[in-house]
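Per your request, structure below.
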């Protein structure tokens, strides 16, 4: 009886069940699967309502608790430096694996399902940083929250204001917990739609590319990000186990935003300082897209191989330089992956932009890998910066992981 009750209240079980059900419905009843899209879409839309309030409340209370404003600037500076180093490594890894495994070699383009790229190939596809800050609401809220946190901490009435902010934070997270109980419905809708609309059969012609993307991102997570955590004697396996529910939600919905508020809360529970989480995680969703970086660089090498184009060292360096800028500047823009690719291909004038049509058919299946890698990478960034700044409570981590000191 206790076992049945435990299963009935286990979110991991129900999200896994929902994902499996979504795959089956999408495969055997494609039209029904496509009709399930609103379930995934509306779940993500509701979760998005919590993101900006949580960023605002977390940063205001975190900065007031930190007290030292120079430390806020130091944390922000270190985070941006970390983002640039790690995403550059991700770009290089994508190019390296692309050349090593050659996923574009011997691809028969005549049997690949092609998509419509008219909205990416026509007109100006360059990235505007002014437009980036104008359209990216998360960055705007982040900057406003930092300013508000500094102002509140300077007020004489701070002690009267902070309890109200903590009270609001408590009820916002309580609302989030209630919405997260609907995660299986969102995961079911997202997965049923993906399989129903695109079909597993579309993966066969570009199966090697798919395999390369997933293998590369797995290696990046366990080797690169694992090494980052191991530097501070933290197990990547323990960390992934701690956020397994969130990972399944990201997998089912193909959106890392669907679990962002929950990730921020869990990072605090495992010992990261509130202000570091509030600064690093939202900023990471614009500047630390590890999975996207791997995919973009690998996609360009793939297309070069498909069209039998030998890229020179100078051209490869140029591509890396362009992607280092555009992969950040397009964050938060709908269809950003293809806008970045179109921008890069247009700038280099070496690979036909029409090649994007080959990728559209399987992009949805690769978006899960991108979203999960971005999600894990931003959590690791917050853990690294917290430890580096000595703003990490290891006793809370041991408690969150359900372990003792000598187990790491």
């Amino acid at each position: 009886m206790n076992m049945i009750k435990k299963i009935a209240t286990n979110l991991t079980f129900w999200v896994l069940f929902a994902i499996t059900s979504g795959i089956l419905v999408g495969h055997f009843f494609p039209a029904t699967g496509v009709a399930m899209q609103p379930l995934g879409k509306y779940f993500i839309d509701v979760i998005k309502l919590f993101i900006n309030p949580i960023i605002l409340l977390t940063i205001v209370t975190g900065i007031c608790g930190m007290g030292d404003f120079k430390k806020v600037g130091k944390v922000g500076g270190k985070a941006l430096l970390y983002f640039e180093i790690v995403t550059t490594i991700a770009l290089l890894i994508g190019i390296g694996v692309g050349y090593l495994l050659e996923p574009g070699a011997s691809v028969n383009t005549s049997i690949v399902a092609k998509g419509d790229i008219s909205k990416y190939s026509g007109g100006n596809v360059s990235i505007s940083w002014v437009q980036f800050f104008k359209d990216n609401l998360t960055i705007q809220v982040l900057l406003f929250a930092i300013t508000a946190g500094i102002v509140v901490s300077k007020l004489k009435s701070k002690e009267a204001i902070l309890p109200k902010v903590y009270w609001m934070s408590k009820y916002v997270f309580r609302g989030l917990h209630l919405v997260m109980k609907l995660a299986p419905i969102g995961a079911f809708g997202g997965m049923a739609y993906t399989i129903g609309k695109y079909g597993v059969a579309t993966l066969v012609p570009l199966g090697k590319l798919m395999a390369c993307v997933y293998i590369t991102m797995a290696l990046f997570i366990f080797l690169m990000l694992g090494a980052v955590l191991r530097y501070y004697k933290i197990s990547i396996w323990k960390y992934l186990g701690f956020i397994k529910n969130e990972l399944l939600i990201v997998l089912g919905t193909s959106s890392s935003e669907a679990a962002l508020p929950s990730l921020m809360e869990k990072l605090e529970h495992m010992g990261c300082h509130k202000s570091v989480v509030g600064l690093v995680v939202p900023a990471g969703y614009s500047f630390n897209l590890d999975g996207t970086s791997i995919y973009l660089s690998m996609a360009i090498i793939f297309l070069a191989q498909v069209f039998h184009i030998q890229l020179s060292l100078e051209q490869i360096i140029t591509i890396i330089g362009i992607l280092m800028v555009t992969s950040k500047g397009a964050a938060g823009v709908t269809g950003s992956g293809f806008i970045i690719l179109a921008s890069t291909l247009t700038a280099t004038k070496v690979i036909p932009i029409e090649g994007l049509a080959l990728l559209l058919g399987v992009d949805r299946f690769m978006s899960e890998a991108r979203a999960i890698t971005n999600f894990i990478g931003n959590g690791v960034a917050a853990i690294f910066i917290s430890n580096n700044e000595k703003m990490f409570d290891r006793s809370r981590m041991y408690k969150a992981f359900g372990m003792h000191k000598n187990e790491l």
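The chain has one domain: 2-407.

Regards,
D.
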